[in-house]
Specification:
By secondary structure, the protein is α/β, with parallel strands linked by helices. Helices cover about 40% and strands about 25% of the residues.
Length: about 190
């Protein structure tokens, strides 16, 4: 039930479609659809459902922590860590900076982790895999052991395969096809 409702929220709130490719992606490519997960990841119902779904997805990897590149991974990591505490199997959340600060510890990673900790890299959307690769580099530079990548949505544009080539398993809660199908279903229902 939770994942089905989460799919509906993503389709209702986060998915945008246009006949013409009007959405510019982080890769620079133009697309006819866009998935802005923040409209779901910052929603109270969305964050609750995401915490439970991501907790379930990362459990097989027994992580010490979950996190990824700021800003997309931040609410996902915090929600999953909160759920881990509620379920009695706590792990920590962390964030990887896009640019290391020139003061303080100058660490690319913020959170209470130590070298050698097992981590799952989180993503809101995988397209080309570039953001997750940047997050993986930051985590590795901090001495963390990456055991998997988990995303909310895989746009099915080669990013998953690129990340798997790095030697880590990649899981997406939903694919572009699933979100698009739900979006179309909702559009027909409301018409």
């Amino acid at each position: 039930m939770g994942n089905d409702r989460l799919l509906t929220l993503l389709a209702e709130r986060s998915f945008m479609y246009s006949e013409e490719p009007v959405f510019k992606l982080a890769s620079g490519k133009m697309s006819s659809f866009y998935v802005n997960c923040k409209k779901t990841t910052y929603d109270p119902e969305g964050i609750t459902l995401i915490g439970a779904a991501v907790f379930d997805a990362v459990q097989p990897y027994a992580p010490d922590g979950v996190g990824g590149l700021t800003l997309g991974a931040d609410p996902i990591a915090v929600a999953a860590a909160g759920e881990s505490w509620r379920r009695g199997k706590p792990f920590k959340s962390f964030v990887i900076r896009k640019q290391v600060k020139e003061h303080g510890t100058k660490s690319p990673v913020e959170g209470d982790l130590k070298k050698g900790d097992r981590v799952v890299i989180l993503e809101d959307v995988i397209t080309t895999g570039g953001s997750a690769l940047t997050a993986m580099k930051g985590a590795r530079d901090a001495g963390l052991q990456i055991v998997a990548v988990v995303a909310l949505v895989d746009r099915q544009e080669g990013g998953r395969e690129l990340l798997q080539a790095e030697g880590v398993p990649v899981t997406a809660l939903f694919t572009k096809e699933e979100v698009l199908a739900r979006w179309r279903n909702l559009a027909q229902t409301s018409a």
